[in-house]
Amino acid sequence: MALSLSCCSLLGPNIHKTQLNISSKREEDLKQVKKLITTNGIPETITSPHESLQKGNWVKLICGASFEDVADVRNLSLVYTLSGVDCIDCAAEASVVSAVNEGIEAARAIIPIRRPWVMVSVNDDEDLHFRKAEFDPDDCPTDCSRPCQNVCPANAILGDCTPGGSGTKGGVLAERCYGCGRCIPVCPYDKIRAITYIRDVNTTAELLKRDDVDAIEIHTSGRQEIAFRELWNGLGDSINNLRLVAVSMPDIKDLTISAMSTLYSIMESNLRCINLWQLDGRPMSGDIGRGATREAIAFGLRLASARGKPKGFLQLAGGTNAHTVDGLKRERLFQTTTISEISDGEKRPPGSSSSQNALIGGVAFGGYARKVVGRVLSSMQSNHRHAFIEDYPEHLLKALEESLALVGTVKRYSSS
Ligand code: SF4
Ligand code: SF4
What residues does 363 pair with on adjacent strands? Predict the structure, then answer.
């Protein structure tokens, strides 16, 4: 006992000193986090989400319509709330919605900042965003080099094949798979299946009644009028609780405006809030590279200058990344209310838009936003699995720098 006491008394002060050092380092890092937010002028300058759409500086974080890793969703929501996003879009699943709201409130406990809207994403029919990859790892050749695992942007394919690793090999972690499909063509043995699903309309209607859900996004091909109508009618009065209804659709070229008009006519009679058209350029590809954003910009340019489109803000998505705003500026579409010239040289009369709202309301970032902050989350989780990022302010600081560099392209913060 004497020896034990003596050891404690020898080690005690050192341990105490180390703990104090760690705690003062954390306090210092947290101070840096707050300083970064205030230096950028975020709490004072960010506008209400509706005003952001009007001004063309709306930013939405897409957590992923199928991404259900609640620990990551919470941390992503915290980081991007501090960065001043206007909306956080997530899977229409109660636990995911709660994770988003937890992240938002944790951010607001660090610094008072306005709450972004919370949006849930659903589909009216089969859609790329609503699928999961699946395979049986016991069915895979033991000598497979596992290209599926290397290509997965979500770290959704389990296994530790690194030199010195455990050598375990697993299948797809369903809650992390967001359906990008990149693993499917790289499997040399054709072992991976894609399982598609449609969100249940009654469950969605219940979710929309929650006080912490502000918006819905309906993914549609634009070609399935009956499926869209059934979903819309099935949501019934739950729509009345919302501040925003978004419809996300791909570019179906000459059919786009007539499809939008049909969908709007279905919604119009009980649409009591603002609406938005999400122009999904190249789905789930923003993290691939610079050029991935081109299709969203071309889609935005065509829609901004199109006549006869139904009411609603326009917002880009699908391939959006840190180069999107540069592309919008090149096309003179960034935070402008008029088109004086379009890129192929055809002249249009100045002031051809009758609205005082920006032609493009804003940008949604998905894969790219998750990638830049995800790197920091992975590094934190390698030591602290399921950690709250605010408990590790040095990681929070890095994540915030990454998110601000992206959100700041649209928001034009003072230090961007
Ligand atoms: S590559 Fe894409 S589809 Fe395949 S497991 Fe990863 S997230 Fe899912
Ligand atoms: S690439 Fe195909 S065979 Fe190889 S581990 Fe992945 S799913 Fe199995």
Answer: 59, 316
Tell how far CA 285 is from the center of its chain: 12
Report the DSSP beta bridge partners of residue 249: 279
Residues 316 and 331 sit within 8 Å (Cβ to Cβ): no
- Are 415 and 40 in contact by the 8 Å Cβ rule? The answer is yes
Is the CB of 161 inside a 6 Å radius of any atom of ligand 2?
A: no
Q: How many helices (H) and strands (E) does the chain have?
A: 14, 12
Looking from the CA of residue 157, the nearest atom of ligand 1 is 5
How far, in Å, is the centroid of ligand 1 from the Cα of 282?
16
Q: Ligand 1 atom 7: the closest Cα is on which residue?
A: 177
pLDDT along the chain (416 residues), means of 10: 41 64 83 95 95 98 98 98 98 98 98 97 97 96 95 91 59 97 98 97 98 98 97 97 98 97 97 98 95 97 95 98 97 89 46 74 98 96 90 96 98 81
Beta bridge partners of 59: 363
In this structure, the residue with its CA closest to atom 2 of ligand 2 is 187
SS3 state of residue 83: coil
Nearest atom in ligand 2 to the alpha carbon of residue 147 is 1
192 lines ligand 2 (CB under 6 A): yes
Backbone angles phi, psi at 401, to 5 degrees: -60, -40
Q: If you measure from the C-alpha of residue 145 to the centroid of ligand 2, how many angstroms do you get, rounded to a whole number?
A: 8
Instruction: Verify whether ligand 2 is closer than 6 Å to residue 159 (CB atom).
Output: no
Domains in the chain, please, with CATH? 42-129+197-411 (3.20.20.70), 131-195 (3.30.70.20)
pTM given for the model: 0.92
Q: Are 388 and 74 in contact (CB under 8 A)?
A: yes
314 strand-pairing partners = 277
Q: How far is the CA of 133 from the centre of ligand 2 (A)?
A: 12
Residues 213, 97: contact at Cβ < 8 Å? yes
Q: Which of 21, 76, 69, 138 is nearest to 399 (CA)?
A: 76
Mutate which of 148, 150, 172 for ligand 2 pocket (most atoms within 8 A of beta carbon):
148
* Residue owning the nearest CA to atom 8 of ligand 1: 177
